[in-house]
Amino acid sequence: MILDTAHLQRCISTLESSLTLYRQAEAESIHQEVFRNAIVKGCELTQETSFKLLKRALKDFGHGGKKLDAMPIKELLRLSATHGLMNLAEVERWFVYRDNRNSTAHDYGEGFAKQTLLLLPGFIDDARRLASHLGDRFRDPG
After folding, report:
1. Which CATH number fits the domain 6-137, given the four candidates 1.20.120.330, 3.40.1350.10, 1.10.10.10, 1.10.3720.10?
2. CB-based burial of residue 131 (10 Å sphere; 0-12 exposed, 13-18 middle, 19+ buried)?
3. d(Cα 60, Cα 67) in Å, to the nearest integer?
4. How many other CB atoms are found less than 10 A from the CB of residue 9?
5. Cα–Cα distance, 87 to 98 (Å, whole number)
6. What pTM was computed for the model?
7. What is the mean pLDDT of residues 33-42?
8. How far is 103 from 87, CA to CA, in rounded Å?
9. Which of 3, 27, 89, 140 is the most buried (most CB within 10 A)?
10. If you average pLDDT over residues 79-86, what whole number do you get?
């Protein structure tokens, strides 16, 4: 199977740009708030794209699509580790990223933003590592 990670890589690049622009914006300005919102949405999109790619990759190990679609994300991450798509330390960090993402439904306030911004550099690194690993493992051999 071949996995195209271009969309995930684009999501990550957009997230990095949003973080840069957030940091450059005047503190407490409307521009900073716009970039903060872009970061929140960028994190969500990057995670969802990562999970879709992991599901596609896991199909290569014989797991059914319907079962994977119904599987809770944390279980999907654990299963990814059993097949060497992630290591256990990465899975634990992705649990934290997922918990943070789930908080968006309840808290878009300053506390949430600060937590997201603290996690963001590690999340970007882990997402890049995942994109690279999946790209290398499931690339066209031709």
Report:
1. 1.20.120.330
2. buried
3. 14
4. 17
5. 16
6. 0.92
7. 91
8. 25
9. 3
10. 97
